[in-house]
Amino acid sequence: MGWFGASFPEMPDTPFDPLDVDPSTTDRLLAGLDPDDAPSAYAGVAQLLAAVTAPADPAELRGEAAAVVAFTAAGYGIEASPTAPNPSCPNPSCPNPSWRIRMLSNARSAKLAAAGVVAGLTLTSGLAAAGALPGPAQSAASRTLSHIGISVPGPDDHANARAQEVNDPDGTTSTTSSTSTTSTTSTSTSTRLTTEKPEVEQEHDQNQGPGSVNQGPGNAVEDQHENEHAAEHENEGAGEHASTTSTTEVEHQNGDSGGDHHGDSGESGGSNSSAGSVSGKSGGGD
Amino acid sequence: MVVLSPFSELLAAAQTGDEAAFAAIFRATQPRLLRYLRVMSAEAADDVAGETWVDVAKGLGRFRGDEGAFRGWVFTMARHRLFDWQRAAARRLADPVPTEEMAQLRARGDGDDPAATTETSQGTAEAIRLVALLPPDQAEVVLLRAVAGLDVSQVADITGKTAGAVRVLAHRGLRRLAEILAVVERTEV
Predict the structure, then answer these.
(1) Which of A76, A98, A102 to probe by mutation at the B interface, max B CB count within 10 Å?
(2) CATH top-level class for B113-189?
């Protein structure tokens, strides 16, 4: 019972904790508070922090010479620019070391790019010589290479050769175990074979605008897709995925081959039913 | 008229290739960097500090900022280098070390107690040993605040924590240090 009959709740039993300090004291300690000015419970901490931030011991500076050497070797860390001075060569005609490094890296990039172009040309020529390029690309390669006296089979030769393979059941299974790129080629060729050849070519001619434009990049994207799929399949090593990929490839190709096939999947599926069967064979082969 | 602080002058001189200015910056920064690294990973400290200075030497020309920003930059690079070193060490642990090589390492005294191998003064070495007893996140925040002289926001940026978390870790770290020192005093008495 308190004053005037009022009752007061019991005060909680909270003993004074000398280690409880306010945030500002923490900040001052971390900033290097003098031990004499610190709360008594933290005087030792203040001394300890002073010791951690004590002046350098000579042993700690042993790496100075090595650091300066690194500084020199790095071209004094001066930002590469045509106007930046070169401390080792006050003459403005001397190139800046960092600038020289950049020039060297540019030359290296140019070499890499040239190597890439050569590799690409070699690969394309090789595929063209083997007759393994898609129809329009094969005919373009055949025309281009014939100008420089290199004989490359045209798309028709390629189709005839493939027709023999399709007619030969052993040949069909043997062509399905290679990479997805060759699988796409054989599928597109087979699609063309099962329909009447002149009509397909006419379709291509009629759809020259969007169809032919789509054909190039479309195939490039497919190739990339297929390579990714192929990598996945190689990792997973499952034959089921291979058959799924083949079907997807055929669908993509149907989409690319002409505007008529877009949007009407039933008609597309009907007209290209043989393509489906070819892809099924491919999957089965895997 | 703009009055340049000594550090600004040193930095400007170093950025134009003045080796003496670069050496002066090294002398002002290296001891604290080394102490931070010795607490975080005693065996890696010297190697990581060396790699950090190579990074500083390469990037100094592009650096823009005052002394506090410079310290933040240096300690950030040191921290990244330390993580690289620790990842590499973990890989080395995964690979079996030839018995002969292990014997040579022991003979050289690698991996000994940091306080025993450190060549700093006795008081500093003992202080480093005591701070190293803290949980790593508390030790790092205390060192970045007290040794590197960084403010809360800089430490938060470097460690990827919130400012509030940095304050709490610093508070707990100091409290824990006080408790450790009390235990040490009782033991000595």
Answers:
(1) A76
(2) mainly alpha
Residue A228 backbone class (left: φ over 0; alpha: ψ -120 to 50; beta: rest): alpha
Q: DSSP assignment of A237-283, as one string?
A: --HHHHHHHHHHHHHHHHHHH-GGGSS-HHHHHHHTHHHHHHHHHHH
Q: Evaluate whether A243 touches A279 at the Cβ level (below 8 Å).
A: yes
* A80 vs A57, more confident: A57
Domain B1-106 has CATH 3.40.50.1240: no
pLDDT of residue B95: 66
Q: Is the pLDDT of residue B159 over 70?
A: yes
In angstroms, the separation between the Cα of residue B130 and the nearest Cα of chain A is 9
Residues 6+ apart with CB under 8 A from A243: A279, A280, A282, A283, A284, A286
Tokens (6 digits) for A282: 């491919």
Compare CB distances from B178 to A19, A54, A71 and report the shortest one's residue: A19
Asked if A79 and A96 count as a contact pair (C-beta separation under 8 A), the reply is: no
Rounded CA gap, B121 and B132, in Å? 16
Quote the mean pLDDT of chain B.
86
Reported ipTM: the value is 0.83
Give the integer Cα–Cα distance in Å for A16 and A14.
6
Question: What span, in angstroms and rounded, lies between the C-alpha atoms of A265 and A268?
Answer: 5
C-alpha to C-alpha distance for A196 and B178, rounded to whole angstroms: 91
Q: What distance in Å separates the CA atoms of residue B55 and residue B78, rounded to the nearest whole number? A: 9
For chains A and B, CB pairs below 8 A equal 149
A62 has a pLDDT exceeding 80: yes
Contact partners, residue B188, CB within 8 Å, separation at least 6: none
Q: Is the dihedral of CA A202, A204, A210, A211 positive or negative?
A: positive
Q: Do A78 and B15 touch (CB under 8 A)?
A: yes
Q: What integer best gives the mean pLDDT of chain A?
A: 57
Sequence ranges of the domains in chain B? 1-106, 113-189
On the question of pLDDT at A9 being above 80, the answer is no
CA distance A194 to A173: 18
CA-based nearest residue to A48, from A29, A22, A20: A29
CB A53 within 8 A of CB A32: yes
